[in-house]
User: Fold these one by one.
Assistant:
Number 1:
Amino acid sequence: MSCQYEITQQTALPVNQQLPESLTWLQEELSTVISDNLFRPVRIRSGRQLSTVTLNGLPLINFGANDYLGYAGDARLVRASAKGACAEGAGAGASPLVSGHSNLHDTLGKSLSLLLGTDDSLIFPSGYAANTATIACLAGPGDLIVSDAHNHASIIDGCRLSQADVRIYPHRNVTAAAEILQTIPARRRLIVTDSLFSMDGTIAPLADLAQLAHDTQSMLLVDEAHATGLFGAHGSGLIEAADIASSVAVRIGTLSKALGSAGGFVSGHHTLIEFLRHRARSWMFSTAHPPASAAVAIESINLIDKEPFRRQKLAERAFQFRKKLTDHKINIGDAEAHIVPVFLKTPQEAVEIAASLARDGFFVPAIRPPSVPRNSSLLRISLSYIHTQDTMNALSDSIINFVGMRHE
Ligand SMILES: Cc1ncc(COP(=O)(O)O)c(C=O)c1O
């Protein structure tokens, strides 16, 4: 179905196209972005987020979405969205603190708590907002935050906002984290980690971090953005799979990836949620996310319960995909799930190989700084239940061909 809206507004102000003198420095900054091969064009997607997407008019098999279970374009969720909007309107109208917290948000909180086995949950406009506000609420001046070097930008920004003493430990190195916790004095301590890392597809050493939190009387915050719906017998995430639920003080996640919707959440003990309702600034001072998005997430949580075969199939196919790449000496680092990086030498190489893959019909984003540290670049392949084994095979053949050719 096509959905073209025409702009019908009558008033159009004359455009002032002069770049203000005070902003001319931006041109120089942008030139550097371009010459460093770090420019990111805007791609316009037409139609739903499905296994094939049309980007700038070109249909491509989509390996660039976090729609791991294939729910974002699912007709059942599209209907849930329409039903939610009919019941509770297009916009939430106010912050949750005032009158934006609707019946659907309330039901979603309960549904998330059931999925995660927690007391209570709080819905944020995005996962980014959930991380920044929550971390800044839990730590402040005089406190210590110990954070993995590969944590997501929203965690990094939350740490900065907190004004706590922030120490970064090398990726997944629990010994280094322990050393920091044992040597730096602090009023309170917070350990923060992604559970499945968004760029390199590795899994955090959750059991060891849980033990460390216990030994050092630290709060443990785990961001399950890329794991919710995908791991554990009930599909709640890697905390369930590692059997450490009772050791995780704060669980953060997003509705925007496997759940196919939008928005973020924090889940945990009732006291934590009550505290955040009185302190978390992005919950208090930002309009609640649309009720239709809450309806979508409620429905996708129901589907995660009913359709465990989706996560199981994805895990099997992802294993085969990774194995084939490593058998052909493609550098995927220590990836161990449905996010598969292909590490490359330069941003230019990443851009060129992504362009070659697009000519073969695949959309695979080239990830460059600042999404990854300086001097690193990669192709980030997001595998989804809606990719068949044949499609994944075709992509791995192309990667082996293009990357192999350059690295011989
Ligand atoms: C680990 C992690 N946390 C949080 C977020 C932010 O989630 P959202 O897209 O809902 O803002 C992301 C998004 O990519 C992420 O990768």
Note: DSSP finds 15 helices and 14 strands in the chain.
Number 2:
Amino acid sequence: MKKVAVIGGGPSGMMAAYAAWRNGWEVTLYEKNQTLGKKLLLTGNGRCNVTNDKSIHAFLQHVQSHGKFVYPALKAFGPKDVMALMESNGCPLKKEDNDRIFPCSDKASDILDVFIGLLKDVNIITDTSVQQLWLENNVCRGIVLNQKKISYDCVILTCGGLGFPQTGSQGDGYALARQAGHARTALHPVLVPLRTDMAWTHALSGVALRHVKIRKPAIVGDILLTGFGVSGPAIFNLGYIPTPCTLHINLIWQQEDAFCRDLKAGNRQLSTVVSHYVPKRFGLALLQEMHLDPSIKISSLSQKTRNRLLEMFSNWPVYVSGPLGYQAAMMTHGGLDLSSIDRQTMASKTVSGLRFAGELLDVDAMTGGYNLQIAFSTGYLAGSTLA
Ligand SMILES: Cc1cc2nc3c(=O)[nH]c(=O)nc-3n(C[C@H](O)[C@H](O)[C@H](O)COP(=O)(O)OP(=O)(O)OC[C@H]3O[C@@H](n4cnc5c(N)ncnc54)[C@H](O)[C@@H]3O)c2cc1C
């Protein structure tokens, strides 16, 4: 029986191990933590948004880098396959808004339990950090552990990226791949809160701006103000943006005409009108920033002030100094250079007996279950195509 070592017991590694075992290989799964799936347990705020039930075409529109690369993996094992695997192994699922799929129990641990069950015939070695590949003449012969060479017919690297390093994903996979000559692209934290240079909004921590539109890149969603800047789905879904930068946010994009009408005439106070469109605390603070008296009557506003208000509410500038960092990042943007990886098998094009899957690859997507699905699909492809 041929032997494969899978390095990293996250979603991509567990799926690769399962697929390789089903494919008839003897599988050893190495994990540096004491238990498998430490990050998986944190996903979806502990509820695990395990996949997204969109067609592959619609799915790929939510992949922000290199969707084309993962197309064969999604074809081989897509959202419906993940859902069937979970449900047929005792984990019923439910669909929420935007086709997001969660376990009915709202417990990420139920997803992990399915994997623990599926991996019962896999040799699982925890508390073991693999730091060296055994390489000879462009062939990966296995791994080196405690200075001892351990032979495998194939090694699959599934060590994750750099997001939430406290879960064990600390960039080891890039270093292991580099030993085999695999380069990586520049890395950045994504799906991450942003720091801003706007002390007045820091004082509004907890205020949510609902269904607003970031102008470029065009993203619609909620933004949460925090003590250091901005967070929330619309911010996460920006993907990688070079910083420092200024985001322009339309706070009234669905009601711009009504906002203009409300500013034209009437006896209402400015604060009353503004509070109809944005949360009151935020509206008052924004008026203060504009040096406008909130108690002023609409009828006494000058045209110039009306124009300023429209500009501010439809094009609110947010000065971003940078991302919060990997400690708070759900994903890594960038990863192993995909030009030297075969997208039909996840195999190295330059070193035989070496494969990759999951966040380690230069692929990342928006929030919504897409990233876990990509980890599952690439892991499945890596394990199921071993020959
Ligand atoms: C807080 C949070 C919430 C998230 N929520 C969602 C969500 O709801 N839906 C979604 O689709 N995505 C979500 N994501 C993203 C998702 O978790 C990742 O896409 C996914 O975990 C990537 O899987 P992976 O197996 O490639 O890497 P990881 O999950 O990072 O797993 C890699 C594993 O490899 C181990 N390892 C690393 N180096 C070594 C080594 N040298 N030797 C042995 N073992 C090693 C690590 O300890 C780790 O267990 C979330 C991420 C975070 C941080």
Note: DSSP finds 13 helices and 23 strands in the chain.
